[in-house]
Structure formats: structure tokens, C-alpha cells
Design brief:
The structure holds two protein chains of two kinds. By secondary structure, chain A is α/β, with parallel strands linked by helices. Chain A has one domain: 2-enoyl-CoA Hydratase, Chain A, domain 1 (Alpha-Beta Complex), CATH 3.90.226.10. Chain A has eleven helices and eleven strands. In chain A, strands 3, 5, 6, 7, 8, 9, 10 and 11 form an eight-stranded mixed sheet that branches. The longest helix of chain A is centred in the middle third of the chain and has 20 residues. The N terminus of chain A is likely disordered. Chain B is an alpha/beta fold. Chain B has two domains: 48 residues; 258 residues, 2-enoyl-CoA Hydratase, Chain A, domain 1. Chain B contains 14 helices and nine strands. In chain B, helix 9 links the parallel strand 5 and strand 6. In chain B, helix 1 runs antiparallel to helix 2 and helix 6 runs parallel beside helix 8. The chains are: A alpha/beta, B alpha/beta. The interface between A and B is large, with 66 and 55 residues. The site of zinc ion has 8 residues of chain A, from loops. Zinc ion binds next to loops of chain A.
């Protein structure tokens, strides 16, 4: 087991165990290659044959990107309420409760402060395992506070997105989190504090149409699903097939909405290099 | 009222209307015969009307917001404003017909007015893409907002969209980026922004031109993170039985809390603009009158604020949105 994953395990044992398949072997979801879990783990859960990026737990991005023992989590105690008293097949509080049990976390984003190659940053990573990484009031508030920490401490912001969009069960309040976060990003932008947006599979809808699209530099893991509308809705609307590769990272870059596609093992290096350019006046040269 | 288009729950009212009209044609002027019958029918119609419209469900309001006769942005503009000069294009790719805007005068004072536009007949509906913007619509709007900021004109926005268009071209040209950028840029525009949801306010498609200082909703408009049928489709998948499908949409509309009244209760909007009994389409001129009055009242308040106050209050407004607990 490589080091970066061990550190992750210390953080949230319950969140992670589930994501490592039982047994020693697993199949690549993309090319069907049979792989050992050990070899995958050593390779940051990237298929050595086809470069398919397996989804890894949100907490793993902390150990992937943040220097050891520098991460301090904030606002972990924020919990969703049920302002709409939303009920479909299940009551919303029940959905929240089972997501909390499943992930060991209170909502769909982890936020905090840490260092990346010695550069202090405000950092967020979204958790797809928590109701599809959906953004309700808690995610919006936590991201808003992370932006405010960037502003008050004068440090760059890095957000790793992974989300199906706004959380339906909080209705209009979820929609307004797009406004809340983007409004604060306008301040960050004016203050010339760098924001790097990292997109992972999938980043769509309300998150893509707010902070995820507002980075000074936007990078994505390969072959992630990126876009505004869901592919099924689009296929339904146009009444036809979607072109191959539609709404992939590669498509996104081709059309000018992505700076770089970066493979997971290179993510920390690239992010650091970008910060070293944009934040050069504030980095100690020693 | 044109009786070719009506909603299911409007049917008895429309039928009484028709009867009254026929009787009036039989007995033109205020001649004696039929007068009492007409008066009685009119009374019955008014009673029925107030019964039906005082107890509207959320789903019925959604239907009123989509009524084929409901006034659209370009119906309101000539009634509310004078000297409208429409401006076209985003200077990047195209002129999105689902979004209109330009200079206009409100009681003589210059403003920038921007709104989503639907079409009335089949051809017009296609021309306006059903009020669904492509990225170029949002970029055209932003261009006009910046123009307004440059020349210190307040911005008045009419939101009326079933959603941002979900299509291949829209994705290729960055629908998400266009909306995100608008949200960010609108939050720091240094002129007053007054928003009125006049019909449908569907999700990011509405929010993409929906950031402002004062947000108003017309009485029979809706505003939500997703449409009731979109929500129903996610929650209950495909339903064969049309009655069950309808029941699901009703339940979804209730669960999502999509009406103006709901959004006042949730502290998201700043006011409700009344509509004539039965909805704006029953009396468009009066609907426009109410809308204009509301715009004038709220704009007056905004115009008296200095730039810094305006921006600070706008930031605080959005910063405060959301309901959560700290354990
Ligand atoms: Zn593979």
C-alpha cells in the first residue's frame, strides 16, 4: 500500500474501506483489463493499460495533493436541515442520515487549510459518495467559508469538484448556493488571489455552472464527464445519439473550456507549478 | 379572452365567458331582454373564478406560468417602457433569439431592459427556442449588463425560461461557463439590478440572468432548482399511467416549493407582484400595470442607494442564503 493512501486511511476509515474492492483482483471499468488491487493502488487507481481513472474517496485527494500533516479540516460540523420538509419515497433527513452513515461525514464536501509543496492554500474536495456530491446549503456554506478563508488569510484556493449538481431536496436554496459561492469568487477575483479548479468525474450542472467553471486555471482528470446538462437529457431533447466522447474532459478542452487534462499522478506537481506562477510574488523563494 | 387555449381547470370559466359573449351578441347594447340572464351569468362566472383561483395548487400555478396566452417579455416592454431600442448579439458567436434586450425608458428615465423571450405560435416558438438560451444568450445578456454599467443605467430583467437549452452546440460553446460567469459578474455590477420572474424560472437557466438587488416574482410564476416534471422523472422514473404521472408532478411541485409565496417564506425573494384574477393572460394590460408599478417602486429604492451600499447589500443578500445547522 503506497503512502498517500495510508494517510488517507487514517482520516476516515469508514469512508474508504468500501471503495477498495474485496479480493485481490479487480476489472478496469473501461478496458476490462484484469488488474491487481495492489498495482492499481500503487498507480493512484489509474488503469495502467487505458489510463482510466477509478473514482477514489474524496479524502484521498487530501493525501494526494496536500503535504503530510499540514491539513486542518474546517466546518466539518455543518449539517443539513430540511427547510422544505422534502419528501419523496424517503424523507430527506433519512437520506442525509444514511449518507452520513455511509460516508462517515456530515455532507458532500471536505474543506480545510493545508500546504501544497509548502504553499499554504484553502482547499475543498467534494465527495460523490454523499448524495452524488450534490450541493445543498451545507456544501454552499462550506465552500463559501473556504473562499472567505482564502480572502482573509490571503492564500490561494484549490477546489476538487465531483458533483452531479445542485441538491434537489433543498430546492431553490440549493440553486442559490451557486450564487452564494460565485459572488464570493468575484471578490477573490478582484483581490487577485489564485483559484485553481480541479474537475473529476463527474462535474456537471449546478456545480459546473458555478464555482467549478470560475477557476483562473481549470484542470481535469482524463475522461471525466463534464458539462451543464446531463447526457440523457440532451439525447432526449435532440432525439438522437450523442457523438462519441461528448462532454468528456477531452471534448471540454477541445472546445476551449479547460486548460489542461492532468493524470492523477501528476496532479500535485501541476497544481504546484501553476501556483508557483500565479502566486510567485507571495512565495518564499528559500 | 381568447378561448382557443385554456387549461383544464379554466374550462368552466371559459365556457361561461363564451355563453356571456354569445348572449351579448344576441342582445347588443343595454337592451332589456337577456340583461338579467347576462348579469346572473357574469355573477356566476365571477364567483367561480374567485373560487378556482383562490385555491390554486402549486402545479396549477406552474401551468398558469406556462399558459400559452401569458404575456411574454416583448408583450410587456411596449406597455411598460417607451423608446425601446433592441440590441442584438453577443459579439462572439450569434444573436440568441431566446433572449432580448436593449435601451428603454421607464417613465422617461433611461434603463437597460433584458429578458428571456418565448414564442406564441409554432413558428415563433421555434424561432425563440421556447425561451431556452444557448451560451450566446447569456453572453449577450452580460454584454448588455456591462454596457449598462458603463453608462450608469439601472438594469431591469424579466426571467421567463423553462431552462438553459440542453443541446450539443450549447455544451460545445460552454453553457456552464456562460452561466457561471454571468452569476459572478452580475454580483459585482455597479448599477442597480431589479429582477422580475414573469413566468418560468427554471434553475441555472434563470439564475444565469437572475442575480440582482431585488428579486420579485409575479403571483403565478414559478422558480425552482428543477422543474416539477424534471424532479418527478428523477424520483419516480418513467410512469405509464398518465393519471399517476400527473399525480407525481403535483407531488413534485409541492415538494419543491416553487411558488412566489413559497419563495417569500424561504427568504429568497423580496416581493410578489399581483396579477389580475385568473392570471396575467386574463388581462395583460392590467398585469403590465401592476408589474410597472412594482418596478417603479422598487427601482426608486435602489436608485437612492450609493454604489458601495448597493454592492455590499447584494453580497450580503446572497451570502445569507441557505439553511443549515452547526452541531
Ligand atoms: Zn483500463
Amino acid at each position: 500500500m503506497v503512502d498517500w493512501f495510508n494517510r488517507a486511511r487514517k482520516g476516515t476509515p469508514s469512508a474508504e474501506k468500501r471503495d477498495i474492492p474485496d479480493g485481490v483482483w479487480t476489472k478496469c471499468q473501461s478496458c476490462n483489463e484484469i488488474l491487481t488491487v495492489m498495482s492499481l493502488d500503487k498507480n493512484f487507481w489509474v488503469c495502467p493499460k487505458c489510463e482510466f481513472h477509478f473514482r477514489i474517496p474524496a479524502v484521498s485527494y487530501i493525501s494526494l495533493l496536500i503535504d503530510p500533516d499540514t491539513f486542518e479540516e474546517f466546518d466539518a460540523d455543518l449539517v443539513s436541515m430540511d427547510p422544505l420538509e422534502f419528501k419523496d419515497l424517503k424523507k430527506y433527513p433519512e437520506r442525509i442520515a444514511s449518507a452520513r452513515k455511509k460516508t462517515g461525514r456530515n455532507d458532500a464536501v471536505i474543506c480545510g487549510m493545508g500546504k501544497i509543496e509548502g504553499i499554504e492554500i484553502s482547499f475543498c474536495v467534494m465527495d460523490f459518495e454523499f448524495i452524488g456530491g450534490s450541493m445543498g446549503s451545507v456544501v454552499g456554506e462550506k465552500v463559501a467559508r473556504a473562499i472567505e478563508r482564502s480572502i482573509s488569510k490571503g492564500v490561494p484556493l484549490v477546489i476538487v469538484s465531483c458533483s452531479g449538481g445542485a441538491r434537489m431536496m433543498e430546492g431553490i436554496l440549493s440553486l442559490m448556493q451557486m450564487a452564494k459561492t460565485s459572488t464570493l469568487l468575484a471578490m477573490l477575483n478582484k483581490l487577485k488571489i489564485p483559484f485553481i479548479s480541479i474537475l473529476t468525474n463527474p462535474t456537471t450542472a449546478g456545480v459546473m455552472a458555478s464555482y467549478a467553471s470560475l477557476g483562473d486555471v481549470i484542470i481535469a482528470e482524463p475522461k471525466a464527464l463534464l458539462g451543464f446538462a446531463g447526457p440523457r437529457v440532451i439525447a432526449q431533447t435532440i432525439g438522437g445519439e450523442l457523438p462519441p466522447g461528448f462532454q468528456s474532459s477531452e471534448f471540454f478542452r477541445e472546445h476551449g473550456f479547460l486548460d489542461k487534462i492532468v493524470s492523477r499522478p501528476q496532479l500535485k506537481k501541476t497544481t504546484t507549478q501553476l501556483l508557483q506562477y500565479m502566486w510567485h510574488q507571495n512565495i518564499n523563494q528559500t | 379572452m381568447d378561448d382557443k387555449y385554456y387549461l383544464e381547470f379554466e374550462k368552466p370559466i371559459v365556457e361561461l365567458d363564451r355563453k356571456i359573449r354569445e348572449m351579448k351578441e344576441l342582445a347588443p347594447g343595454d337592451v332589456g331582454w337577456l340583461r338579467d340572464e347576462i348579469a346572473e351569468l357574469e355573477e356566476r362566472r365571477d364567483k367561480l373564478q374567485s373560487d378556482v383561483y383562490s385555491g390554486l395548487t402549486r402545479w396549477q400555478r406552474v401551468q398558469l406560468a406556462r399558459h400559452p396566452l401569458r404575456p411574454y417579455t416583448l408583450d410587456y416592454i411596449p406597455i411598460i417602457f417607451t423608446d425601446f431600442i433592441e440590441l442584438h448579439g453577443d459579439r462572439l458567436f450569434a444573436d440568441d433569439k431566446a433572449l432580448v434586450g436593449g435601451f428603454a425608458r421607464l417613465d422617461g428615465d433611461p434603463v437597460m431592459v433584458v429578458g428571456q423571450q418565448k414564442g406564441r405560435d409554432v413558428k415563433q416558438r421555434q424561432y425563440r427556442n421556447f425561451g431556452m438560451c444557448h451560451p450566446e444568450g447569456y453572453r449577450k445578456a452580460l454584454r448588455l449588463f456591462k454596457l449598462a454599467e458603463k453608462y450608469e443605467l439601472p438594469i431591469i430583467i424579466f426571467v421567463d425560461t423553462p431552462g438553459a437549452y440542453p443541446g450539443i452546440g450549447a455544451e460545445e460553446r460552454g453553457q456552464a461557463e456562460a452561466i457561471a460567469r454571468n452569476i459572478r459578474e452580475m454580483s459585482v455590477l455597479e448599477v442597480p439590478i431589479l429582477i422580475a420572474i414573469i413566468g418560468e424560472g427554471a434553475s441555472g437557466g434563470a439564475l444565469g440572468i437572475g442575480i440582482g438587488d431585488t428579486i420579485l416574482m409575479m403571483e403565478n410564476s414559478w422558480y425552482s432548482v428543477i422543474s416539477p416534471e424534471g424532479c418527478a422523472a428523477i424520483l419516480w422514473k418513467e410512469v405509464e399511467d398518465p393519471k399517476q404521472a400527473e399525480a407525481n408532478r403535483i407531488q413534485a411541485a409541492d415538494a419543491l416549493k416553487v411558488t412566489a409565496e413559497d419563495l417569500v417564506n424561504l427568504n429568497i425573494i423580496d416581493g410578489v407582484i399581483p396579477e389580475p384574477l385568473g392570471g396575467a393572460h386574463r388581462d395583460p394590460a392590467r398585469a403590465a400595470e401592476y408589474l410597472k408599478k412594482s418596478l417603479l417602486d422598487h427601482l426608486k429604492i435602489l436608485m437612492n442607494k450609493d454604489k458601495q451600499t448597493l454592492l455590499l447589500e447584494r453580497l450580503r443578500k446572497y451570502r445569507a442564503m441557505g439553511v443549515f445547522m452547526e452541531t
